[in-house]
């Protein structure tokens, strides 16, 4: 038994070490931050690599190997308990994060826009929810053309204040600015791991190492947070903190934590109605009313402090304009299909309202289902966020999938398989958009069914395999 555990420890360590080698060879080496940032090259994998087939296969092969090692790590850590696997998971995850900080953002311009928008408030003292970055000098911080430079920030106020502070830290250097925002990603990643560990200690202490690995070793989480420097884990941290506070029966602060997440990116606000609904049967109406009132009071103060100085008026909220942008989503795919049957204006309006109605119906069904079954908040939140990405988000970024990955330690295996497959398809879509040489319409018609459809197929195959396995075991027991 001891020898078997030692072998599992060794194999888990090798999975982590081989993953680190791939991150170094396939990402840090070819897309080195220190080498590429002075060149001001556009964050486009095709432009950086000259659209070479070698780069395409290197990217796809690296993803396949990383997800294979991730899956093997899940298998080996499932057979281990104690502090040993926790140390392996934590050290390898942190080492991967520190490596990937030195990757130039090769497939996303978002961090450059974070910088120039942060400078609007942090350097020039103007309202970044009203004033676009192009109103001020943006070179060398946005050293390539971008239509987004003419658009004020679509983010929530807590993010604007955070970005302003980071922009001041990085003032004077693109490299230093990139490192400042990547530093926030590292802090958010460590914070998420800490809250996850605390949650797992309360709910599933024997599965702590596995739960941490599911999040901390996921290639999408690592690449999109540390290489691309997306801000999604900053938001996800507050959602996880809300779950931990819920488990500790700190319901007022759990609701406030969701509000803080919504003040980074607005999405967590849609988790407040189910949180309040799930609280009702736990507390009774009087305690519920006190809890909701207290949370509303604290939240109103936080909103006033963060949004008050930046309030642009309802018409000036960038998120409203953002909701009209259609790209890389099921909504975009639906509108393209409808456009073959009707005029583009009719297809756009019909497709948009069809997706909104579908999301609203799915939202209500999930909420009613969760109330009837008394599901834990993590299950409900994951379902709602997944449905939002599939039906509600008209503009989809594959890095949004990291919201779901933060929650998979708490859900059933089939849901984990679905989210992991979703993360693989999301990262793989970069190769589709970059190297296939298709038109925008062709890319949408091909890539969207792959990104959104394959995870459902993977889940169906997993469930089918489980049913066959259960049937085989039943037959064995019946013969015995």
As residue ranges, the low-confidence spans are none
As a percent range, the share of helical residues equals: over 70%
Largest beta-sheet details: none
Q: Could you state the oligomeric state of the chains shown?
A: single chain
Beta-strand percentage range:
under 5%
Using DSSP, what is the number of strands?
0
**Shape descriptor:** globular
> Can you give the mean pLDDT?
92
Helix and strand run:
HHHHHHHHHHHHHHHHHHHHH
In brief:
By secondary structure, the chain is mainly alpha-helical. It has helices spanning 2-28, 33-36, 45-49, 53-77, 83-100, 110-122, 157-169, 174-203, 208-216, 219-227, 232-247, 251-262, 272-283, 285-307, 318-322, 330-339, 344-373, 377-392, 402-405, 413-435, 440-479.
Can you tell me about this structure?
- This protein has helices spanning 2-28, 33-36, 45-49, 53-77, 83-100, 110-122, 157-169, 174-203, 208-216, 219-227, 232-247, 251-262, 272-283, 285-307, 318-322, 330-339, 344-373, 377-392, 402-405, 413-435, 440-479.
- The chain is globular, with a radius of gyration of 23 Å.
- The longest helix has 40 residues, at 440-479.
- It is 72% helix and 0% strand.
Features:
21 helices; mainly alpha; 480 residues
How is the topology of this model organized?
Layout: H1 2-28, H2 33-36, H3 45-49, H4 53-77, H5 83-100, H6 110-122, H7 157-169, H8 174-203, H9 208-216, H10 219-227, H11 232-247, H12 251-262, H13 272-283, H14 285-307, H15 318-322, H16 330-339, H17 344-373, H18 377-392, H19 402-405, H20 413-435, H21 440-479
């Amino acid at each position: 038994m001891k020898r078997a555990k030692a072998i599992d420890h060794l194999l888990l360590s090798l999975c982590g070490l081989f993953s680190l080698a791939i991150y170094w060879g396939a990402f840090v080496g070819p897309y080195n931050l220190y080498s590429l940032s002075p060149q001001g090259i556009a964050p486009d994998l095709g432009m950086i690599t000259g659209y070479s087939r070698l780069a395409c296969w290197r990217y796809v092969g690296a993803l396949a190997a990383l997800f294979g090692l991730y899956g093997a790590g899940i298998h080996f850590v499932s057979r281990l308990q104690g502090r040993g696997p926790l140390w392996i998971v934590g050290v390898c995850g942190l080492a991967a994060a520190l490596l990937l900080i030195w990757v130039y953002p090769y497939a996303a311009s978002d961090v450059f826009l974070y910088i120039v928008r942060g400078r609007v408030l942090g350097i020039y003292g103007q309202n970044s929810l009203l004033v676009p970055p192009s109103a001020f000098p943006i070179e060398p911080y946005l050293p390539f053309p971008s239509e987004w430079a003419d658009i004020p920030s679509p983010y929530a106020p807590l993010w604007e204040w955070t970005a302003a502070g980071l922009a001041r830290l990085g003032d004077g250097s693109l490299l230093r600015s990139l490192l400042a925002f990547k530093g926030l990603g590292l802090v958010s990643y460590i914070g998420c791991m800490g809250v996850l560990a605390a949650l797992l200690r309360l709910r599933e202490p024997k599965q702590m190492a596995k739960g941490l690995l599911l999040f901390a070793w996921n290639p999408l989480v690592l690449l999109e947070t540390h290489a691309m420097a997306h801000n999604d884990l900053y938001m996800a941290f507050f959602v996880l903190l809300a779950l931990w506070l819920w488990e500790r029966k700190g319901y007022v602060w759990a609701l406030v934590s969701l509000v803080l997440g919504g003040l980074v990116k607005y999405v967590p606000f849609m988790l407040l109605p189910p949180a309040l609904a799930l609280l009702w049967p736990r507390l009774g109406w009087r305690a519920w009313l006190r809890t909701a009132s207290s949370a509303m009071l604290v939240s109103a103060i936080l909103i006033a402090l963060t949004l008050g100085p930046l309030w642009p008026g309802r018409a000036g909220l960038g998120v409203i304009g953002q909701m009209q942008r259609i790209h890389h989503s099921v909504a975009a795919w639906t509108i393209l299909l409808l456009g073959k049957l009707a005029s583009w204006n009719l297809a756009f309006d019909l497709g948009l309202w069809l997706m909104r109605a579908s999301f609203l119906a799915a939202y209500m069904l999930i909420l009613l289902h969760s109330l009837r079954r008394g599901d834990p908040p993590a299950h409900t939140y994951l379902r709602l966020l997944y449905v939002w990405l599939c039906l509600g988000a008209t503009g989809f970024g594959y890095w949004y999938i990291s919201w779901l990955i933060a929650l998979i330690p708490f859900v059933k295996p089939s849901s984990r398989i679905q989210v992991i497959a979703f993360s693989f398809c999301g990262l793989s879509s970069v190769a589709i958009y970059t190297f296939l040489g298709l038109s925008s319409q062709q890319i949408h018609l091909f890539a969207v069914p792959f990104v959104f459809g394959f995870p459902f197929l993977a889940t169906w195959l997993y469930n089918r395999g489980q049913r066959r396995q259960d049937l085989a075991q039943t037959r064995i027991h019946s013969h015995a």
